[in-house]
Write a structure and sequence with these properties.
The protein has helices at 49-60, 81-88, 98-109, 183-194, 221-227, 237-248, 257-264, and strands spanning 5-12, 17-24, 29-33, 36-40, 45-47, 64-69, 78-79, 91-95, 124-126, 131-134, 137-143, 152-156, 159-161, 201-203, 218-220. By secondary structure, it is of the alpha/beta class. Helix 4 (183-194) crosses helix 6 (237-248). The two termini are 36 Å apart. 43% of the residues are buried.
Length: 292
Amino acid sequence: MGTRTTTEGFFDPGTWTVSYVVWDHATRRAAVIDPVLDYDFKSGHTGTASADRMLAYLAQHDLQVDWILETHAHADHLSGARHLQSRIGGRIAIGENIRIVQETFRKIFNLERTFLPDGSQFDHLFRDGETFRIGEVEATALLVPGHTPADMAYAIDGSVFVGDTLFMPDVGSARADFPGGDARQLYRSMRRLLDLPPQTAMYVCHDYPPTSRAPRWQTTVAEQRAHNVHVHDGIDEDEFVAMRTARDATLDMPTLILPSIQVNVRGGQLPPPDDNGVAYLRIPLNLLPTHG
């Protein structure tokens, strides 16, 4: 836990996602990390209940938002970044390798010709090691590819927000079999995070808890190094890659991968509406594998 900031987590049980508000005590400036736009798969309706919980918290504490940070283009929930920005402002940001992800999925979905895979859908693209400020607090963007080519972690005031790169110690690590994923890169990214000071608070983006406990989303580097079931100290790269590859081969595609990616490569913007004023999502038939 930082001394200059407060972190509040918001758990979405529909997607097992944790979003965060991090704010600077001195200036009451804030960053929002990985917000969720609700989506009912059966009806095709979007909703804002998850994001509105964050808006209520921001209003309660009289916070102004500097940044809306995405750790990557999520495959398991739609981003609420645009909804939040329309209400409270802030710059939507992601890692610069989002261009690689956009190019890959532009082809898979055969997106409209006006969609450019140049990252222009976001307000800012972070370089690895780039520093930025939340009020008076300095933060650092860290490139941690492997789950996707564009994954970023954000180091803020003695804490690190790791997205899907690491899960809680008893759950392990993210999958690496999506287009552009790489298990060896993932191992090296996790070790980069585990080389941070042992007392660093680590906040994960998802929790898929065993039945023996409730969802949790905060741990430490020391706890991960000692107890993470996939990458604790002593597990080498080849051992991890063999485990991750075998495990990924058994996993189904996430339920919301097709709708979420189309929105998330646009920075949370829905696809442009057709001439009837309705926005549509595209479902490529018989293209993606049934497993990752």
